Structure formats: structure tokens, C-alpha cells
Fold this protein.
Amino acid sequence: MRFRCETDSSQQRYCKVDTSDGITLVKQLSRIPCMQGRNWDYDRHGVWVSHRCGGEFVTGKRIEQSPRQGPLVRCESQANRIERCAADTRNGVQLVRQLSASDCVENLDWGHDDKGIWVARGCRAEFRTGGDEAVSGQTGAENAGITKISCESSDRQRQRCDIAVKTGVDLFRQISKTRCIRDRNWGWDAGGIWVDHGCRAEFSVR
């Protein structure tokens, strides 16, 4: 189910919805970036937003594949500055290849609005406009040789998620309130991905 939840003030707004299968932010409506764990999140009863965050959300981790695929857009944050790149974002944006050593975490280091794509904090990546990519737990979804996988450190314990890695792994979307930092609380080798100290995220495996 797709729904909107938004607030035009710093006050928290609560939107009751079934969150048993998870919640995914699929479109940001506000000028203020919506960052999970900061100005939006969810519990077992619904979704909350605050500090002028507004967005469209989908219940569950699976997002319907859009048949409309737009061009690749390269957007780079130089010297950790916020950079904006013009793009048609009406049908969504997905990160397809990370170019920077710095993490590119959606709604923290990159995002999009009706004017285009923005990147910050050293994130440099290539993005595909025109449709949100399907994600389904740890099974992943194939698109142009990229597999998506969720890997989560519960109770701050180290967790390993086995998957064949050919060329590399990029952090696609951070789920946890704990910031996921490569080589500190997540990493990878040829046999899979590891997370630790509360990092929970979705990764792109190439």
C-alpha cells in the first residue's frame, strides 16, 4: 500500500498503518530531506514524521517495478558540498553505481525532489530515473547485473550475509538509526557482507 505522511512544522505527526512487513520511503515531497531515524521512522503501529519531512511511503520492502526507465544521471558532491543535478524525477530515482569512497545513503547523502537529484557529504554516484527498483529481503532483485540484499546487525551483534560478490558492494539504503560506515561497522569480501554494532541496511552487490 502506498500512502502519504507529512508535516509542515517541527511537530511530530503520526500516520497509523500496518508496518509488519516494513516501510520504504519511495518519494520525498518536502524540501527538507527526510532521513530515517532523524525526522521519520516507524514502529509496529505506524509511521511518524517531524521537522517538515513529507513523503510517500510503501508498506513492505517490495516495490513494484516500473516499466519506464529513464537515462543515467551522474551527480557528484565535491569537497563535501551539496550539489544538485537536473533530472526528471517524477517516476522515481534509484542509485545504480556508487563512484565515491564516501557512503551514499539515501535521504542522508543523496535524495531527490521535483527539481532533480541532490548529493552531499562526498557522495558521487550514477542514478537511474524512471521507476523504483524491486527489493525483496535478502533474496535481492536483478537489474543490470546488480543484486539488492538486506543485511542487519540485531542487538548490535555481528551478522554475516552470504552472497557471491564479483566486483564490489555499495550501501544502497540505510535502515538503522545507527549510521553505517564502511570498514567500521560493515564490509564485504568475495563470499558476502558483514554488519556490526547495529548497522542495518540494503546493499547493492555487483
Notes: Confidence is low (pLDDT under 50) at residues 62-67, 132-144.
